[in-house]
DNA sequence: GACTGACTGGCACTGAGTGCCATACCGGCA
DNA sequence: TGCCGGTATGGCACTCAGTGCCAGTCAGTC
């Protein structure tokens, strides 16, 4: 926590951002699987070995933010009022995070890559599984009581994430013609027709 | 379709079964990640190169059956009466396939390995994604009409699979103390409390 | 000027997965 | 009996992801 470590942290942060930017350019230009780590390292002006000091896997360059998002999601969920319906709270938490990054065209390109590259898709879902650990405790708390709370909480979190995933795919297929929330609500309505959003 | 090709098919089938059996023994004894393909090949009496002619990846040894199961699931779903509720039909289709393999202890061990090995878990979910292609058309047909049928069908199939997955985890955690269907129904009830089973 | 701590590069290694080629087996056919 | 085409096989070399190890560099510190 000295000024030195703060400097290092900022430097490291900048390095992360720079490597990510360079790598994403290559991914979008040549395809994810076609781009090797040697190419990324060369383009970023670092050694192959150093790349792996910043990212555990090639997929992490694209999906690294998902870990942090899971924690942010948990925090957002915990901020929702106690009496609120679980589904309403989950929906509100999810869309409190939605970043309007401006460059929609780029987000679409990234999203297409994500849905069409098997290894990325798999890792993405694997990261989503970690969200369970973040969200289930709070959902379980809100369910309050009952022997099979854990199972019920997992099912609810799982289906919410699944709806988000399905919505993301529809958003990508539909070229972002409607906001993600629209697709999410439609997906949730298909699963829970009685409860309106 | 000559007798020769039939013979080959049977031989191949036997080879598949034998390699799978040998590999599973090694996986359960030493762990999935610890077991190399060289070891499997040596134990099965084939070359490393031949292993890859039977299985595309190491994960496929454990998860290969999931592809066939998706198609069987589709067939089972199509056999359900037309007027039946989609969720009821899906549930019935899923549990018409449940094989009581007898050796529950072994199934538990395999299941534990599956849930605890990241690469296996990821691939397993990836295979489950293929089930979408198998099941969504029939679910969509049953929904009959409406502009966002595809999205709705995907959401329903996705949540059904998610509930199955959550149920599988609970079954594994609970050491198979109750049938899988019990956990599945509980999971589905958490998501759709109004509609009973 | 030695010391510590964090980052870096280079090298060698394992292990998954692929492409290529030569070979062996088996049934059919002249 | 000998040739032929299809299929399975083994071996080799290769790419690429990811890891471990060691040596060097560049702060800031006493």
Automatic annotation (TrEMBL), chains A, B:
It holds the Pfam family TetR_N. GO terms for molecular function: DNA-binding transcription factor activity; transcription cis-regulatory region binding. Keywords: DNA-binding, Transcription, Transcription regulation. Residues 13-73 form the HTH tetR-type domain. The keyword Glycosyltransferase does not apply. Residues 36-55 bind DNA. This is TetR family transcriptional regulator. It comes from Agromyces agglutinans.
């Amino acid at each position: 926590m000295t000024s030195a470590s703060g400097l290092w942290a900022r430097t490291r942060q900048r390095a992360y951002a720079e490597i990510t930017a360079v790598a994403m350019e290559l991914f979008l230009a040549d395809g994810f699987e076609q781009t090797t780590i040697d190419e990324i390292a060369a383009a970023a002006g670092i050694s192959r070995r150093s790349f792996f000091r910043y990212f555990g896997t090639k997929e992490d360059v694209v999906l690294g933010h998902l870990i942090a998002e899971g924690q942010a999601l948990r925090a957002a969920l915990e901020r929702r009022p106690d009496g609120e319906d679980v589904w309403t709270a989950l929906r509100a938490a999810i869309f409190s995070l939605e970043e309007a990054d401006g460059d929609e065209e780029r987000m679409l390109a990234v999203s297409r890559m994500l849905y069409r590259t098997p290894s990325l898709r798999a890792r993405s879902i694997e990261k989503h599984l970690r969200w369970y650990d973040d969200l289930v405790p709070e959902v379980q708390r809100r369910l309050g009581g009952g022997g099979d709370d854990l199972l019920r909480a997992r099912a609810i979190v799982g289906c919410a994430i699944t709806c988000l995933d399905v919505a993301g795919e529809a958003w990508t297929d539909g070229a972002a013609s409607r906001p993600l929330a629209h697709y999410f609500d439609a997906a949730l309505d298909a699963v829970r027709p009685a409860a309106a959003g």
